[in-house]
Design a protein that fits this description.
This protein is an alpha/beta fold. It has 18 helices and 30 strands. Strand 24 (467-472), helix 14 (477-483) and strand 25 form a beta-alpha-beta unit. It is elongated, with a radius of gyration of 29 Å. It starts with a strand and ends in a 7-residue tail after the last strand.
Length: 602
């Protein structure tokens, strides 16, 4: 397994990934296969050498005290039914692919809560519920939250839900905006407050004390400035202010589990500002120290990928937890934001075009997202850069590897969904138009013109002075006319409604080849990408093995700005089977796109 070690005290760069032996559960323990690990500001402080007198941390050590994942194995005395269950747990050494957890610290997760959200909520959720209950808020109470970070934003949400008038103090505009979305009425401290939650400490904590109203309560738990708020006990007593310190967020194991379980089931959605793989732990610590991070940082120890182990209907697709791939020489790892769905995907899944499966197969040939890691020898790209491109397979995943030569920079004018929908359709459209040799002034018929390939081919042909007529469902006719396409309704009599044409591109596979050849008078003037009976009619079945293709072709078309690609429907990764089902049976305008989780904080 891989672990992240603090190899010495120092800056974020001392965090290094290395291989370590797999763990074995002892009596009363389980091994958790970590999917996501919480990252705390105190862990960034401990990495520098702060707090050794009470933490006992000495390099090399593995940081991390909270994880979410699945139980891999159980030790003696543990009910084996725990194995395979989704859990969160308080641990030691959570920045790793595996962690040991005591049975009495396991928290079963509700199905609707994702692993990154659970990891982000584990610590701050328990602390927030404890603080809110101790504050005994009443409707109309004036509440100040300093340091609107991971815990602070949860406090804002809970306090606002309790009817308090909340002020969230934060220097960054993005933090203030997020606090307002969660219910903060103000973002500039003014006047006095009945309850103050100070998550900063130091000088800010002293200022928070000054803003606490006589008879109010100050929760001084923050140490972001190196120490808790310095409060004169005599002055606090004279003003009738109750000061509650770190003890309010320090729990026995039993109480922590109880509070964390409540948080996991309270409907709280933590704000995740950064979610990166283990090998980017240094970046997570740097983000925390910059204080510009909006919400929580989490480390991802595993990724998700849609795969199938047998050919068949969409239900053979499963969402698996898999290792996050490491880029090899010349490769780039992409944190996927969106992945396109194409007819070829479900044809592969049905076994129409591939050899028997020997191992689980991925699905999806095109993605968009951000650069997540660079392999040896890769130049010209940077981590965090928005990109899109075509992958060999397996695009429906949180993280994918792509050859750097296949990568394209995503234009700002395109959303991630739009960019993910373009590579396959664009390559196919350019290739088939070249194979047809259609020229300016000629008349081109496109079957399934409202689909991805049809739309790109139509728009490219129109930009070249070619008249385009296309078969499509009547509901799509208005959009097609707006593009300049003459639409023809599917069904009996379509050929008569179309009239003579010079060339035909069949993207439908609906048994239209015989009439298409009749319309053109020459089978060489017909190309199909969807009908395997092409040879019976003397028609070319076009595949990606011939004609112009590659990122240069896609880049030229996209940069030209002449192509619009409507998004017919989006699905989350968990509903990949529904996306395939709709692609196989739907009459859609544009492309189906699957949205992934890796880009959640963006």
């Amino acid at each position: 397994m891989r672990i992240v070690e603090a190899t010495s005290f120092g800056g974020p760069e001392v965090l290094r990934v290395r291989e370590a032996d797999d763990l074995t559960a002892g009596p009363g323990q389980v091994v958790v296969g970590v999917v996501a690990a919480d990252v705390l500001s105190v862990e960034a402080q401990l990495r520098t050498g702060w707090g050794t007198e009470w933490s006992g941390a000495r390099p090399p050590f593995v940081p991390g005290t909270g994880v979410a994942g699945r139980v891999l194995s159980a030790g003696e005395g543990v009910d084996p039914s725990w194995v395979g269950r989704r859990v969160a747990a308080s641990v030691s050494g959570g920045y790793a692919e595996q962690a040991l957890a005591d049975l009495d610290g396991l928290i079963a997760l509700p199905d609707e809560l994702g692993f990154p959200e659970a990891a982000a909520l584990l610590q701050v959720g328990a602390a927030a519920i404890s603080l809110i209950e101790a504050a005994e808020l009443k409707p109309g109470s004036r509440v100040l939250v300093t340091g609107a970070g991971g815990l602070g934003l949860v406090l804002v949400e809970l306090a606002a839900a309790a009817g308090a008038e909340v002020t969230a103090s934060a220097t960054a505009v993005a933090k203030r905006q997020r606090a307002e979305r969660l219910g903060a009425a103000h973002t500039e401290p003014k006047g006095a407050y009945d309850v103050v939650f100070d998550g900063v400490g130091g000088e800010m904590g002293a200022r928070a004390f000054e803003l606490t109203a006589p008879g109010g309560r100050l929760f001084a738990y923050g140490v972001m400035q190196g120490s808790p708020a310095a409060v004169d006990p005599e002055l606090a007593a004279a003003r009738g202010i109750t000061v509650i310190g770190m003890e309010q967020v320090q729990f026995t194991p039993e109480r922590f589990r109880a509070m964390a379980e409540r948080a996991m089931n309270a409907g709280i959605t933590p704000t995740i500002g950064l979610a990166v793989p283990l090998d980017r732990a240094a970046e997570a610590h740097a983000a925390i120290e910059s204080r510009a991070l909006v919400g929580k940082a989490v480390l991802l120890a595993r990724s998700r990928a849609v795969r199938y182990r047998e050919f068949g209907e969409p239900d053979v697709l499963s969402l698996d937890e898999v290792p996050i791939p490491s880029p090899g020489p010349g490769q780039v790892r992409i944190a996927v934001r969106a992945a396109g769905v194409n007819a070829i995907d479900w044809k592969f899944r049905r076994g129409f075009m591939v050899v028997p499966l020997e191992e689980p197969a991925g699905t999806g040939l095109e993605v968009s997202g951000t650069v997540d890691a660079l392999g040896e020898g890769v130049e010209g790209w940077s981590v965090g850069q928005p990109v899109f491109g075509r992958v060999a397979t397996g695009g429906l995943a949180d993280h994918v590897l792509i050859e750097a030569a296949e990568l394209l920079a995503k234009p700002e004018r395109l959303s991630f969904e739009e960019a993910a929908a373009l590579p396959v359709a664009t390559e196919t459209a350019v290739r088939t138009l070249a194979e047809l040799g259609v020229e300016r002034g000629q008349r081109l018929l496109i079957h399934a013109v409202a689909g991805g390939v049809g739309l790109v081919a139509a728009q490219l042909a129109l930009s070249r002075g070619i008249e385009v007529v296309g078969t499509a469902s009547e509901g799509h006719h208005a959009f097609l006319r707006e593009l300049g396409v003459t639409p023809v309704t599917y069904g009996e009599g379509w050929a008569e409604r179309t009239g003579p044409v010079d060339a035909v591109l069949d993207a439908s596979g609906r048994g239209v080849l015989a009439d298409s050849v009749r319309l053109t008078g020459d089978p060489a003037r017909v190309v199909t990408i969807a009908d395997p009976s092409a040879g019976e009619h003397g028609v070319l079945f076009s595949s990606g093995s011939s004609g112009p293709s590659g990122p240069s072709v896609v880049g030229e078309v996209v940069d030209g700005g002449a192509v619009r690609m409507p998004i017919a429907r989006t699905f989350p990764l968990e509903r990949a089977a529904d996306a395939h089902r709709l692609s196989e049976h739907g009459h859609l305008l544009g492309k189906i796109v699957v949205i992934t989780e890796a880009g959640l904080p963006q």
